[in-house]
Design goal:
By secondary structure, this protein is α/β, with parallel strands linked by helices. The chain has one domain: Vaccinia Virus protein VP39 (Rossmann fold). 43% of the residues lie in helices and 21% in strands. The protein has eight helices and seven strands. It has a seven-stranded mixed β-sheet, with helices on both faces. This is Methyltransferase.
Length: 209
């Protein structure tokens, strides 16, 4: 096991670890990929470093990433999480409760992210975590820049695309969109970016003040 994975697995308590395992099992049965322990540890760290009170998540899944995000957030912080599949959010609610988080720590909104995000407050968020439709990643970035306060952090999961992002052979449209996302963030004067080699690649950027 890689150091990042082993270290990430040991940063939460036993009840949260059991909830994570249950959530991962639910995701596996549903054919959903979840963030790795290393990626989860990075998300907890970023939420803590941002002293995050308000976090928006695109792609609830079965709650794995939500547990990690809430673990790093302030005790009074609220996670707003959006997913197209209400059934997945039902699993996520159970997972967060089993991990010891009160019901008022998370706001679950079913629906398409690009329909929901415009309804969220400008500058009202400390961190935005994007783990949704790769074809919409550039639109997620635009919405994230609006949602984040100065000094806030945006993160994109899965930017390595199993190594296809740097593969010179013919690639599908979603990989081309990821390349465009990487280029856009790298060239932006409004962001300070970093690409973390955890999981399948975690692209992070801080919004300048």
């Amino acid at each position: 096991m890689a150091f990042a994975e082993a270290y990430g697995a040991g940063t939460i308590d036993d009840s949260a670890e059991a909830a994570l395992q249950w959530s991962r099992d639910c995701a596996r049965e549903a054919g959903i990929r979840t963030v790795t322990a290393g990626t989860g540890a990075a998300l907890s760290l970023l939420a803590a470093a941002a002293d995050a009170k308000a976090v928006a998540e695109i792609g609830t899944g079965t709650g794995v990433s939500g547990i990690y995000l809430l673990h790093g957030m302030r005790p009074d912080g609220v996670l707003t999480t959006v997913d197209l599949e209400p059934e997945r959010q039902t699993f996520a609610k159970q997972a967060l409760r089993a991990a010891g988080f009160a019901g008022n720590r998370a706001r679950f909104i079913p629906g398409r992210a690009l329909d929901v995000l415009p309804r969220l407050a400008d500058g009202g968020y400390d961190l935005v975590f994007c783990d949704g439709d790769l074809m919409e990643c550039l639109e997620y970035l635009a919405e994230s820049l609006r949602l984040l306060r100065p000094g806030g952090v945006v993160c994109f999961e899965g930017v390595f695309a199993d190594g296809r992002t740097v593969d010179s052979s013919l690639q599908p449209a979603e990989v081309l969109r990821l390349r465009e996302l990487l280029r856009t963030i790298r060239e932006s004067t409004a962001l300070v970016p970093a690409l973390l080699p955890v999981g399948d690649g975690l692209l992070c950027a801080v919004k300048r003040g």
